[in-house]
TrEMBL record, chain A:
The keyword 4Fe-4S does not apply. It comes from Streptosporangium longisporum. InterPro entries: Peptide/Ni-bd (IPR030678), SBP_5 (IPR039424), SBP_5_dom (IPR000914). PROSITE patterns: PROKAR_LIPOPROTEIN. Keywords: Signal. The lineage of its organism: Bacteria, Bacillati, Actinomycetota, Actinomycetes, Streptosporangiales. This is ABC transporter substrate-binding protein. Residues 1-21 form the signal peptide.
Automatic annotation (TrEMBL), chain B:
InterPro entries: AAA+_ATPase, ABC_Ni/Peptide_Import, ABC_transporter-like_ATP-bd, ABC_transporter-like_CS, Oligopep_ABC_C, P-loop_NTPase. This is ABC transporter ATP-binding protein. Belongs to the ABC transporter superfamily. It is found in: Cell membrane. Keywords: ATP-binding, Cell membrane, Membrane, Nucleotide-binding, Transport.
TrEMBL record, chain C:
Residues 131-341 form the ABC transmembrane type-1 domain. This is ABC transporter permease. It comes from Streptosporangium longisporum. Belongs to the binding-protein-dependent transport system permease family. It is found in: Cell membrane.
Amino acid sequence: MRKTNALALAALGTALTMGLAACGGTAGGGGNTSSGGGQGTGAAASAAKHNDGYTKVVNASDTKGGTLKFALSDEPDSMDPGNTYYAWNWNFTRLYARPLLTYSPEPGDAGLKLVPDLAEAAGEASEDGKTWTYKLKKGIKYDDGTEVKAADVKYAIARSNFTSELTDGPKYFAEYLDAGDYKGPYKDKNLDNFKGIETPDDHTIVFKLKKPFAEFDFLVANPQSAPVPQAKDTGLDYEKALASTGPYKLDSYEVGKQFNLVKNENWDQATDTTRKQLPDRIEVQFKQAADDIDQRLINGQIHVDLGGTGVQPAARAKIVGDPKLKDSTDNPFTPFNRYAMMSTAVKPFDNIDCRKAVQYATDKTATQAPWGGPLGGEIGSTAMTPTTVGYKPFDLYPNGADHKGDLAKAKEHLTACGQPNGFETNIAVRGDRVKEVQVAEALQASLDRVGIKTTIKKYPSGDWSAQYAGRPDFVHKNGLGIMIAGWGADWPSGFGFLSQIVDGRFIKDSGNYNMMELNDPTVNELLDKGIQTTDATARNEIWTQVDKKVMESAAFMPFVYEKTLIFRPSTLTNVYVHPAYGMYDYTWLGVQQ
Amino acid sequence: MTAPAPESFLELRDLRIHFPTDDGLVRSVDGLSFRLDRGRTLGIVGESGSGKSVTSLGILGLHKGGSARISGEIWLDGEELVSASADHVRTLRGKKMAMIFQDPLSAMHPYYTVGAQIIEAYRIHNDVSKAVARKHAIDMLGRVGIPQPDKRVDDYPHHFSGGMRQRAMIAMSLSCDPELLIADEPTTALDVTVQAQILDLMRDLQSEFNSALIVITHDLGVVAELSDDILVMYGGKGVEYGTAEDIFYRPEHPYTWGLLASMPRLDREPTERLLPIKGSPPSLINVPSGCAFNPRCTFAGRTAGKATTEVPQLLETDGGHLVRCHMPRAERRSIWENEIKPIMEST
Amino acid sequence: MPGSDPPGHPGRTIVVAFIVRRVIAAVLMLAIVSMVTFAIFFLIPRALGQTPEGMASRYVGRDATPEAIQGAVERLHLDDPILVQYGRFAQGIVVGQDYSLGPRKAECPAPCFGFSFNNNQPVWPTLLDRLPATISLALGAAITWIIVGVSVGVISALKRGTLMDRAAMTFALAGVSLPIYFTGLVSLSVFAYTLGIFPGGGSYTAFSDNPIMWFQALVLPWITLAFLYAALYARLTRAGMLETMGEDYIRTARAKGLKERTVVTKHALRATLTPILTIFGLDLGLLLGGAVLTESTFSIPGIGKLVIDAIRGNDLPVVLGVTLFAAIFIVVANLIVDILYAVIDPRVRIS
């Protein structure tokens, strides 16, 4: 699951609104941006409308020069492409790290397609689907002018997946590659002992898998497949001395403070169809106050909130009330589905009709409100989200045109469940997540209408998975019938989204994400079948079936497909929302001077 | 309306000092008049709240600029001070007139050495170098009987004993040779032997400097030691004025009798009160009608009903001896001779 | 007088002995603080059933393999007995320690407070790196508030009851009541984003890089932070001044014939300021340990911003480091204040 950096300081909301009320200026209107770039041409603001960046490229321009400024309220786990799990960083690291494949630079569903980046073409799978071969483009150089070799890709994957130092990124390669008991390049300096990948020549790389995996192309679109020369690797310190293959290279990095990139002269546009190289310089400030980032965005002092998780409640309120500001925003889906899981192992939810009663009784406009209403999420009815490859909309539990619940149906299923007057159960929630607590309260009020009495139990998010909701024995013992959770896929396919949360064989004693403990043989078999199906269309059809099966179990109840409200200052050029990241494509941006 | 300047060195004419407060007007001093010549000592006695200290601060002009309403006249060496500017009165303070405060531990600044405080007082009025002023400070400390003054000059007030502090305070007050010296309860905080030393010291210094001295106290013993003349105050007014002999041997005001009778004496149990003054000092906001002392006066019934209706005047009873009482002079003398004096002498 | 101490005065040797004793006490204090902090973050979780793996799982990626977690346990020595862990921590402070970066080891020379769990940076150099920002903020604000607060307080006391006094005290009440993140955001919104007089948040620049930028970026944070404290100090000063002006020694000073200005500046202020200076010392010491709200609001990379982020990110070594660091400042500030107090107020005997 991807991490977001939503350190929302909701309490600041009202304070900021009050402060801003006195302001009333519009973006760039002050002509007082701190970047030394002549007169601000705020008056000539683009005529772009709300959500234009979602369907097309706003402010298309090939103007070069200037400094592109990012700010982030958090700091990254690492700027090392091999050692990061933040969604925004899988987007951002592409500025200096080219993986084998990447997503097509287009808005809308077209952007979910993989295109060659370092590789010449998509992977070539063997007949049994266990061997994947990629050919590297020739002439791709690091920023120091040396040529990229296949062994560097192999080394990059070895270091990011097989060492105890680089722990922050995902470990899919360790899971799927047939590497025996390889100890990793830090304990075993001889790369030949890493049998999971073979490099027959400098431009060919062959992945050997334990079992067939039809979506392997998605794995190599992760920045972990960006090459790292073994001689340049300094382990945890590599983020401070990156070898760049992208249009930018590292200028300076002060950990926890700022990260600056300058143009990489050794990058060749001819080999790279997905990126642009417009700004002279790219600056990132870390650990900036979240509300202040919004103010600076609106006033044109910075260009992008790097996290891509949207503006804070205070700025949101201001933007919603100002049509001009709203035209400078987009409202994309994030990869996240926000949902409740009903434990099939906790009475009376072992009975499907009791689960269905909850599905029908829930007022989904009430559970949508805490996310910020329609701007914060669209009411969901499937396990997969709209920006997942293979998503097909359907609704098995229609609860009224206004989504306020179908109480008659709910009562019907309660009777069928043998609980005509309702029952008592618990709702588990991460107590330090304000929105999720509010959702739990809305759900509680919904269910109360049909006699389902619930008690809200709050647990700390830090140990949520390791100690509480992620431990089936704890769930059983404490009768946690309903658990409020969320999930975002590591890659936008049905498998990427579903396997961890619906596969019965992934039910773990601790750190369990299949909290409903759904162990449906049909679902498990479909997942196995799908991941071995090389034909994408057929495979995506299977994911839709899995989604239907999961929803038929009635144990999974989606609240919303999460959306964010992101701001694009008028000085930002070439802006569009990339669907694979749910944020702007950071490799395309330029700035007006 | 102002009468010509008097011949006396100090003369107060109908001085009134009132303080407006949230509860009403506090008439701390309400029509006080007296005279004092150089070389003479006036003792002002009375309970707390009788207006003694307010009077002395009023003479120094320390109520100026505050909320106090001041009327009447204060003549000092031919100058009228009530109508004089605050700044002019300030130039007189410390030099022409000075004050010895009670409780010198709180009256001296805790953060400055004794010497520094004397030096400061001296240099306000004398344009001399610090070294000269320091020498003068050491001299003064020596004259008031501080041993090793050249060392103790650098001590802080809290390093001194109570008696030494009082001496230092006196040294500070006398540093500019003031012509009028007001001592407010100069010995209250001290033990008996030290009291005696301080009183001796003040008497000596007064004769040496030939200054006019006002001693304010509730302790008749101190007054007896020092004073030529005595003013008894009650409720912001003078109720009896006369020479020390007048007051001690021929007192005519019932309040004075009470004070005398409550003087501690070696031959009597300290708790024994022959003629107690019942009740408590009067409110200065709602002054009792008629004679302010009437609610506490044993003899109020002998005034033919005037005690509660008419404010008595301060009238001369004998050459220079003034009394504020409704009772006829003969009756007052008779009561003193026949009722009070025998009791005081009997035991 | 040279060569001879008047009776009751602290001798030079006494002062030295006092300082030595206090320094020893301070070091002991810090040792205890380190133990207690360590216990809070490491001993108590374990006593409550936290396994070394559970602890390690927070510091590796989301879907970490058991091998990665085991690797982290070994790398961070989380499976050692707590006493051994504390010993290693204490040893690190005294003699330093090594830390595996992968292909090579990083040296962490003494005093080594360990490495951040979140970004693997050594804690001590990070603290030193953040210190100038915090010092810049704290000192500038402190100078502002002591001047403004004391002046307003003195004038208010002297003009007691006037319109000016009432206005100043209303303003001061606002300053005390309004939280910094409110005043900070409002001042940013008005002065930085609407009027454009000062740069916005995140514009802090090191003094050594660009003194002018440093100053411009800090004006708003200084004023914001100083506003709160100036309000506090104005109220303190006013109350102290009113009390002092009623003291007998002020009457004495007037009775000497001193000008009112001298009475106020030399006699009243001296006594009023002494307790305020001691509070000032402690406040400053506390602030040097990090002005969390101001640094957060203005995105100043100081100690306070560091620690609040570390707390949010469960970054125990950084939290531990900052706690000790702040404790050092507070202990040192206390020591200095005690010594200063003895110098300023002759009634305080050093013993």
